[in-house]
Design goal:
This protein is an alpha+beta fold. Helices cover 42% and strands 12% of the residues. It has a three-stranded mixed β-sheet, covered by helices on one side.
Length: 115
Amino acid sequence: MRDWFHLSNNYVDSLNRAAERLANSLVDEHAHLTGSAMRQHLLAQHGIVVILERSDRARKFDTKASALVINAGQPASGIRFQLAYQIAVMTLERPSLRWLRMPIFDRRPRANSSR
């Protein structure tokens, strides 16, 4: 597998195209990727309300309430990272992208792995 990625210059066309479609869906009316645009995406596409408030945790996702609570005390870049992470998780749950969760993309060590 490592050789395949090396020979393909670490490029997976279907993954790249899916990422481009997702990125294009996240921009605001000025074609900027903003925290506001990501919050709107989470609400419109996944029904998730984002709540920014001071907390001792970076983030907490409440699946029952479909609410993502992000610590407002983080830098703006940290808040955007938490939004992007949640978008990625929700996007990978879509049936059309479940192949991305195949073992070749799972970086967790396996119990009987020789790596």
